Known about the structure:
alpha+beta; three-stranded mixed beta sheet; 49% helix; 13% strand; flat
Amino acid sequence: LKKHSIYGTLSGLITLEKEYVTAIEVVLGGALQNIVCENEEDAKSAIRFLKENKLGRATFLPVSSVKGRGLDNENEIKKEKGFVGIARDLVRYDKKYTGIIDNLLARVVVVDNIDNGIALSRKYGYRFKTVTLSGEVFNAGGSMSGGSVNKTSGFLSRASEIKTLGTEISALSVELEKLKKFAAESELSDILSKLTVLQECGEKMGKALNKRVEFEMSLITMCSGGN
């Protein structure tokens, strides 16, 4: 296999604003851990590697074969009350993954709240999936799902939290340097305490994500070695 034919898990290949994390995470669910690769042969070799080493199962998304299509009445839907965006348009990704993103998100509409979600889904005959910013889902066909959402359970949530922590740590570091020059000792101690807590939180979440990264790297190493 050619080098870098396995690109990593879907969660590591997309980015998005914090306000959309819950909606996108709920919609993608387990697909966030699916592994994106170049083609079917790469997926075949990776599956053989998992089987031979008894490493469990994984779902692969070959760039060459996974495709999707958008909504037929997309322009009309965009004018509806509470419309936030087509899920596909709320994430950022390399254009090489367009087919995969379209397959998973091009027929998902994100709305602001549950009432507008019900109204929109009903108006269009439950022909596509709708999700609210807080995670309620109206599936094609009419079923609904919702309830409490664990904000720190998913890969996108953790990545978003780590990004936020990094920003806060940087800001506190700047304040720390200023305080070292002319602030009172008590203020300096408070900043140091906050900085320590944030760094510890970042390290804990980073370790959780690193476990998945190590799994991805084992597959990439295997594929880079040829076959």
